[in-house]
Amino acid sequence: MSGKKISGPIIFLAVALSLILSFSGRSQAAAGRVFSIGQLAARPGEVVTGFLEVPAGVDPATRIPVTIINGRKPGRVLAAVAGVHPYEYPPILALYRVKEIVRPEELSGTLVLVHIANLPAFQKRTIYYNPYDWKNLNRVFPGDLNGTQSQRIAAVITAEIIDKVEALVDMHCGDGNEALIPYTYWMLSGDKKLDAVTREMSLAFGLKHIIIDNTRSQDPGESKYLGNTAIVRKKPAITTESGFLGRVDEEAVAANVAGLLNLMKYFRMLPGEADLRPDAVWIDKYEVIYSSHDGLFYPRSGMGDYVRAGEVVGLITDYHGNLLEEVKAPFAGMLLYIIGTPPCNRGEPLFEVGRVKD
Prior knowledge:
By secondary structure, this protein is an alpha+beta fold. It has 7 helices and 19 strands. It has helices at about 10-30, 90-100, 120-125, 150-160, 190-205, 225-230, 250-265; strands at about 35, 40, 45-55, 60-70, 75-80, 110-115, 165-170, 180, 185, 210-215, 235-240, 280-290, 295-300, 305, 310-315, 325-330, 335-340, 345, 350-355.
């Protein structure tokens, strides 16, 4: 992150500050309150670690490791969630580092760290899917306590995290098969005040590329994604991506740490002025291309490359090496991510193309 604080259009800054102040007033009224999630409770000035329990159902029970840092001074309540896709290691490691950095005596408000949202998949080292129900946790929100394990995890996170905080950042990176450039999803809600805050949150996190995303469902019962579940409940939220191919990469870990700390400055939870990314590149259209076959994928371009409409981005062969398809770019743009390992499966992503806004 670099540069002096900028705000884009003045109207965005005005409405963003208005909403921040309204939240701040709410937090002031709660000054001195014990903050509780699940069975965990932190008094002002305390750091509490433990688990959110996910009850057994049609498959086994599980738990979610979390930390509450309750500041001595009043302020916002912010949640940072990692490990929804648990082969995405840099955000997970970043939250453990942030836990050691943030001191309750310096903190205004409360920081909730969800270290590994999908612990069963983390333990089994799987990408995308939970090993018990083979569901993608980031496709089943707001969840169902009577459903399978992924659905129950989502339901607990919705009730104990999303519904109890004031803002949220859902932290991701390229999964074990995804070569991905760093970027943030700015999810539009149609609420100008809410969108103004999430726009500024996107700039504060500091990743250069920001996707303007107006594709998410506004139905609270079908919110599907963690970040979007917060948005439809009128909680400011962004989804970030920093890291690639499941690597434990220090640059990506550091970017996640810096982004979260700067976001906390933006919300006036930590001392100092927040830097808002002055050279952000906005992506105003994106499309994920999915495989129509089971087989092997051979990329012809790499993450961050620009491709032309109709350009061959990769080849799919069958398990005998016979060509099945030349997969082409749907429009001219940048490859935000591309599969960097050979296996491809019908219905799973191959790459994502984003169009840079003029």
